[in-house]
Design goal:
This protein has eight helices and two strands. The chain is mainly alpha-helical. The longest helix is centred in the C-terminal third of the chain and has 35 residues.
Length: about 180
């Protein structure tokens, strides 16, 4: 297989990165790996060295997320046992308590990837608009049922009070709704 960077030399180096569950992979020759600094990565920082090396390739998502291993390598979720190294390797968390345990690390990564740690969603799709329309139709149908029940109650009252002309009008209105 040829190097993905230069396309000339035979690839003998594989680099994988997982961000938000999306796996990115580079297959490189030793020369390109050396030029990009991947042949002897700085193990002192999980993200920092990679962002220096691959800033352009991965759009600088990991810039300024240097987290020393000394501070984070001993982090472990008390609920599921996921440690920081597993989180970095897999790019996924196992349980809801992982979010509390790795909160600071997640916050820094999200701020760099999205320029914020708060998600701003997209405009609802056509499917959601259709659901909203169906909901309005459903509410109208239920409103008609309520109106029907009201007319039936008024019809019973009109018959009991011997108001037959009103009862006939109510009966016609009920028939119109039932059509």
């Amino acid at each position: 297989m040829k190097c993905q960077n230069c396309g000339k030399n035979e690839a003998n180096f594989q680099y994988r990165q997982i961000i938000n569950g999306k796996k990115k992979e580079l297959i490189l020759c030793s020369e390109c790996a050396r030029k990009l600094g991947l042949d002897n990565m700085d193990i002192g920082y999980e993200f920092g060295r990679m962002s220096d090396i691959l800033g352009g390739l991965f759009n600088g998502f990991l810039e300024d997320t240097r987290i020393p291993l000394i501070q984070t390598s001993n982090l472990e979720c008390k609920t599921c046992g996921t440690n920081y190294n597993n989180f970095i390797t897999d790019g996924m968390l196992e349980c809801e308590d992982c979010y509390k345990t790795f909160n600071k690390q997640i916050d820094k990564v999200l701020k760099n990837i999205h320029n914020s740690n708060r998600h701003i969603g997209r405009k609802p799709s056509e499917k959601l608009d259709k659901v909203a329309e169906e909901s309005v139709e459903y509410q109208l149908e239920n409103k008609e049922e309520t109106k029907l029940e009201k007319l039936q109650r008024e019809l019973r009252a009109a018959v009991e009070e011997e108001r037959y002309e009103d009862a006939a009008k109510l009966k016609n209105q009920i028939k119109e709704i039932e059509k």
